[in-house]
Amino acid sequence: QITLKESGPTVVKPTQTLTLTCSFSGFSLTTNGVAVGWIRQPPGKALEWLALIYWDDDKYESPSLKSRLTITKDTSKNQVVLNVTNMDPADTATYYCARWQMWVGNNVFDYWGQGTLVTVSS
Amino acid sequence: SYVLTQPPSVSVAPGQTARITCGGNNIGSKSVHWYQQKPGQAPVLVVYDDSDRPSEIPERFSGSNSGNTATLTISRVEAGDEADYSCQVWESSSDHHVVFGGGTKLTVL
After folding, report:
1. What does the radius of gyration of chain B's CA atoms come to, in whole angstroms?
2. Measured between CB atoms, which of B33, B96, B103 is closest to A108?
3. pLDDT class of A120 with cuts at 50, 70, 90
């Protein structure tokens, strides 16, 4: 059974750095073709992709947010961490992590976490 | 950057067929994936690689992709199909990034 779960603060202040952890089970981030990604969704708005980290440590970030994002993995703990710097109220959103498949399904998020709502407010 | 365009809303009566489109430049050359999202829940993959379904998804859900438009088709629509549906592609021609459409709210009348 594949599961992912996001954890982190529910409220952050403007200019602070947000750190979110994705803890997963049922698969390994050492498997060829597997990655974990982060996606966010502001209330009432569309999904927005943030970042991906692959089994071989290759990484991609959203061009519009690249300067503020850092994604890392700890394969021994089955965790992926996303840092977002200089948080702004516009970053208020539900943040999801999801498993990404390159080969079984051509570049698709096949399993998602439940999401965690992060509010940016002073 | 690559843009996916979806209609904001689609309405259909129970038992009828719903078609949700996803437009993009030469999208037929890409693999398109579709997610269903019910209120307060995480997205669920319903169609991948244009027209394949995860094993747990009913056969009523199907997809196609050609030219500049991909389409998610839901046959014999049920009240439980009411949700937001989003398309997604992987853009690798310029830089590498994931693109989502703006989402379509399916209303079952």
Report:
1. 13
2. B33
3. very high
